[in-house]
Structures are given as structure tokens and as C-alpha cells.
């Protein structure tokens, strides 16, 4: 499958690199307002492929996106140290007003994968600007937060993160919800697994993991300016699920008719992803505190989008 990436900065190029190394795409086309940057990134990534795959990587203009099955949108601005994702909204909404129409004019059948922040609201904006069905405009949502949660739980329990089935729901941002009540390690609850291996999940440890997941981006941005390897790998994983019609479950964000009583809001719940985009939404059983936190997250996103002029 041919995959387009608009925004050849750190996130876009990392996604391109992950796609090329894994051979998930037959062709990757990088587009950026800085043609020079897109050409340099494509050339650099192309030099990695001979070690691992036959993916063709090149830079191009919007016309070069014709025939793409998926277009990733990773354009716009990123956070400065201490800045929230929501603070990027006006600037990135303006970028998307220019970009979405240009992409659709040449690749009307592509599934759009949104990475730019605040990703839930950018997903809603893209859905509304494009007129595409919500199931074909997929925000990376909390895939990265879910990966961070699984990584920390796996490390604590001494097992592979792939054997941890735990999700972060809601906003990809400060109001996100770590769902402990339904988290599994293998086939048992993480709490039971932790007791059985003598590493109980104390309230202090849960609070520490929550903080490490919720504030990971702030810490990484403080240390190195931006985050990109995690989301790059996550975007490549979503492309694989779509390209191979895997019907795999991810906590991705799409404009959803109703979540916890809030209507028409984009946020993450677990969803089945395959060739046509999102196939099924899943609403996991939550405890009362998680329900309330998800409702607060949905209400916050709804409030932020209410004033948007599209
Ligand atoms: N969803 C997630 O989990 C994550 C999202 N992000 C978000 O991804 C976005 C990109 O972040 P980075 O790659 O670090 O930023 P970056 O600044 O390295 O790259 C952004 C690129 O967008 C390009 N761009 C700006 N306006 C454009 C336009 N009108 N048309 C085409 N290209 C345009 C810029 O020239 C730049 O190369 C940010 O909004 C960031 O917050 C970052 C990490 C994780
Ligand atoms: C920047 C961002 O959204 C993240 O790393 O989670």
C-alpha cells in the first residue's frame, strides 16, 4: 500500500522510518511545506531501507499523494516545554484548514490517520472539513498512552508489555483515563497477577504509574524537545492493521455519537481497526471512578470544540 505523510518533521519522519523498516508500506511519500526538509528526510530514510525492506521512500507535492490508501497528517506545531497539547489548537486548526482539502483533492479514497495535537480535536476538525465518514478519519488518540501504560505495567510485573491488556481512554492529554479495573496480565487481572508474583499494585505504585503515563510527554519534551519514536511506531502499527485488514483493537479516536452522555465527541475507546477503518467501537466495563473520569474528559473536549469555527 502507498502511504502519504503530510508533515515531515519528527513525528512524520519517525512514522515513515517505522513504515520503511517494517516494510509495511510499498511506498511512502513525504510532503511538507518545507520541500527541502521533506527531500532530506526521504533521502535519509531511503538509505535505511536496503538493510530491511524494499519500501520506496520519496518526497513530493500533494499530487504525489494520488493513489495513497492512507495519508498520515503530522503537520503543524508541537509543544514547547511546559505547554499543553490543547494550547496548539488554534495554530494547528489553521494548518489543517489548508491541508485537508489539498489531500482529499488528490486522494479522496484514502483513510486519514491524524497525529497532530490536540489529536482528538484535530480528528474532529478533519472529519468535519473532509465530509468523510467518521470511521475513515482516525486519530492516534491514546495509542501512545496505552503503550506507555502497558510498558510500565509489564516492567513492574516482569512480563512482556504485549502480555498486558490495559487501555488508556478519553482525551490524549491531561484528562486521560487509565483503566485499572479491567486491566489484564495474560488471563488474570493485573491486581491478581501482581499479588501472585509478590509485587502488589499499591495505591502509591498506581499513582506513580499514572503520573508516568500522564506526564510522559512533558518530561520527554523537557529533556529532548519533542516525542516521536513512540508515536512513529504506533502510526506504523495502525497502518499495518488497515493494510492487512487485521481487525486489531486499538484505543484510537474518532468522532463518536455518544460517550458517557456527551454527544458528538472525538476521543479514544478501544475500537476494531481494519481495511475500511474503524469497524466497531467497544465500551469496556469501568468502575464508577473511571466512568466519572471518562465523562469529565469527554465534557472537556466538547467544551473546547464548541467555539471552533470550521
Ligand atoms: N498523537 C500523538 O501521540 C503525538 C502527536 N504529536 C504531535 O504531532 C505534531 C508534529 O510534531 P513534530 O513532528 O514533533 O513537529 P515538527 O515541527 O518536527 O514537524 C511538523 C512539520 O509540519 C510541517 N508543516 C507545518 N505547516 C504545514 C503545512 N501547512 N503543510 C505541510 N506541512 C506543514 C512543518 O514544516 C514541520 O516540518 C505536533 O502537533 C505534535 O504535538 C507529537 C507526538 C505524539
Ligand atoms: C507529544 C505527545 O502528544 C505525546 O508524546 O504524548
TrEMBL record:
Beta-D-fructose 1,6-bisphosphate binds at residues 150, 165. Homotetramer. The modification Phosphotyrosine is found at residue 218. This is L-lactate dehydrogenase. Pathway: Fermentation; pyruvate fermentation to lactate; (S)-lactate from pyruvate: step 1/1. Catalyzes the reversible oxidation of malate to oxaloacetate. Catalyzes the conversion of lactate to pyruvate. The active site is at 172 (proton acceptor). Allosterically activated by fructose 1,6-bisphosphate (FBP). GO terms for biological process: glycolytic process; lactate metabolic process. It comes from Rhizobium straminoryzae. InterPro entries: L-lactate/malate_DH, L-lactate_DH, L-lactate_DH_AS, Lactate/malate_DH_C, Lactate/malate_DH_N, Lactate_DH/Glyco_Ohase_4_C, NAD(P)-bd_dom_sf. Belongs to the LDH/MDH superfamily. LDH family.
